[in-house]
Amino acid sequence: MTIRLLALSGSARSASHNLKLVKAMSAGATAAGATVTLIDWREFVLPVFNEDIEGETPAAAVRLKTLFAEAQGFLIAEPEYNGGYSALMKNAIDWLSRPLPGAPVGSVFKNKTVVIAGATTGKWGAVRSMRQLREVLGYLGCIVLPDTLSVNEAGKAFDADGKLLDVKTAELAAAAGAALARVTAALSRS
Ligand SMILES: Cc1cc2nc3c(=O)[nH]c(=O)nc-3n(C[C@H](O)[C@H](O)[C@H](O)COP(=O)(O)O)c2cc1C
């Protein structure tokens, strides 16, 4: 059975280092036999969640929740903003955690596998934001793999084609993606 994974950068920035990183992870997952769908946030622009506007559920939230429901696991590369993970990611999680008319019923997180990496231009490579995101996704019932990867000084880490320059780091990114594919496949057989 083919494993279906979603790949997400926690940044919608067009030149996002985390987008490049999650693509490197996705390559590893694909090589391990998974089918990976990369989320393009331009197709999923969501208003800031507020229970007052739940009655006007955005179509983008329904489409995103459907993709999450269909996926068995998530590859995430998360930036760090002011010592925390991104508002984009938190807002998406809040929308996805709600019952949305027209979207599949039930949790899209419970018992789903996740691997979290992170890239920042600073010295600490998203260690704080990754820890926080791990806690929140664990709270929602995700199985968050111990595999992780921190890329610091991300402005110098990628070439003009968006590939990781350091061979060892590229191997680790691919290995994180492959680990998610393998663990998800093993769990789907159990
Ligand atoms: C408002 C703001 C706050 C930031 N705070 C942090 C931070 O706390 N720690 C850090 O390492 N980098 C921080 N950065 C730098 C980001 O990690 C950097 O811009 C990163 O490249 C963003 O991810 P992206 O390339 O995927 O868009 C901050 C950047 C912005 C714009």
Detailed description of the structure:
The protein is α/β, with parallel strands linked by helices and 190 residues long. It has a single domain, classed as Flavodoxin domain (Rossmann fold, 3-Layer(aba) Sandwich). The chain has 5 helices and 5 strands, in the order βαβαβαβαβα. It has helices at 17-31, 59-70, 87-96, 127-139, 167-189; strands at residues 4-9, 35-38, 73-77, 113-119, 143-151. A 5-stranded parallel sheet has the order 2-1-3-4-5, with helices on both faces. Strand 3 (73-77), helix 3 and strand 4 form a beta-alpha-beta unit. Helix 1 crosses helix 5. The chain is globular, with a radius of gyration of 16 Å. The mean pLDDT is 97. Flavin mononucleotide (FMN) is lined by residues 9, 11, 13, 16-18, 79-83, 120-122, 124, 154.
Q: What key attributes describe this structure?
A:
single chain; 5 strands; 5-stranded parallel β-sheet; 16% strand; 190 residues; Rossmann fold; binds flavin mononucleotide
Summarize the structure.
By secondary structure, this protein is of the alpha/beta class.
Mean pLDDT: 97
Query: What's the CATH class, please?
Result: Alpha Beta
Largest sheet: 5 strands, parallel
Tell me the overall shape: globular
Termini separation: 13 Å
Q: Provide the CATH topology.
A: Rossmann fold
Ligands? flavin mononucleotide
Which sequence of SSEs, written as H and E, runs from N to C?
Answer: EHEHEHEHEH
CATH hierarchy: architecture: 3-Layer(aba) Sandwich
Helix content: 25-40%
Strand order of the largest sheet: 2-1-3-4-5
The number of helices is 5
Number of strands: 5
- Alpha-beta content class: alpha/beta
Proportion of β residues?
A: 15-25%
Low-confidence stretches: none
Number of domains: 1
**Global Rg:** 16 Å
By CATH's scheme, which homologous superfamily applies? Flavodoxin domain
